[in-house]
């Protein structure tokens, strides 16, 4: 008698996970919430952020039977406590304010709010894991760094890079809190994060090879695509280690390789201290979207190895080159002929040098004038 092959039964996944995502109103948090709403084991996503918009995830919530709770409040709001007390996983992805450092958001962290939130999580009896979005910058941008850095490298944040110092403080705060309660704490350390959404930042960043540059910059750099960051975070939610883990693509790019990707561009090269001073003036005048201290970060290596992340089964969808090109919108410069590029590069460099000197002189004069007024009053 003929037998009919029976299809193996697919085990049914019962959604039981309740995941809290802070910084859900940021570019990374928004993508992570979208990913969580599609995860079969997630019963509820609590999206936390002051600037959450109605309908932000409507296309997904229309077709997915998942419960989304939006909490439009800060981390220190007492009304947040009942929203998070049933959490099984908490992802600290923000908020991040101030000037951008890359696709992870601003350079400023709400450390006080995070401390308050952790205190409130003491009532979350089902909490098993804490995921913290930090940065590879905690290793410090230093000339004597090995290339690449592994998770065993010592954390040496640069005092001249506030974002580096704050992320090191965030890691210490969260790991100590989790250690006291026996909760797994995954410290996620991505390299420079880029994507189509932050092309304007990349175009004006120290890694664009255009505009203001540090004259002796020779360090390699890694560009992690935002989509790869999100896929890594989703993997670490279910399989994350207790401790630090680097998030980066395979390999890295040298300064000359980045220049080859960008093509000829007008630039002004200054010493590191002068470049940071000028960038600070530009930031105060609203001419630059990024943190001036990123010039310091670009002047020395802090590239990392991704072996530990790859061992968990993660694979990047983008190479360094692909991530950079996908984020670099090109614009008018890409449509110019080589001759016009050369002419504008020469003219732009001369104009930029004059503008730099003028800006610095203006600041010095203003300070001198203010000091004179203060001494005469």
TrEMBL record:
The keyword tRNA processing appears for this protein = no
Q: List membrane-spanning regions.
A: 344-364
Q: Does the keyword Amino-acid biosynthesis apply?
A: no
A Pfam family cross-referenced in the UniProt record is Epimerase
GO cellular component annotations, sorted alphabetically?
A: cytoplasm
MF GO annotations:
aldehyde dehydrogenase (NAD+) activity
Q: Entry's Gene3D superfamilies?
A: NAD(P)-binding Rossmann-like Domain (3.40.50.720)
Domain annotation NAD-dependent epimerase/dehydratase: ranges: 19-246
Keyword annotations: Membrane, Transmembrane, Transmembrane helix
Q: Which InterPro entries match?
A: Epimerase_deHydtase (IPR001509), NAD(P)-bd_dom_sf (IPR036291), NAD(P)-dependent_oxidoreduct (IPR051783)
* Name this protein carries in UniProt: Unannotated protein
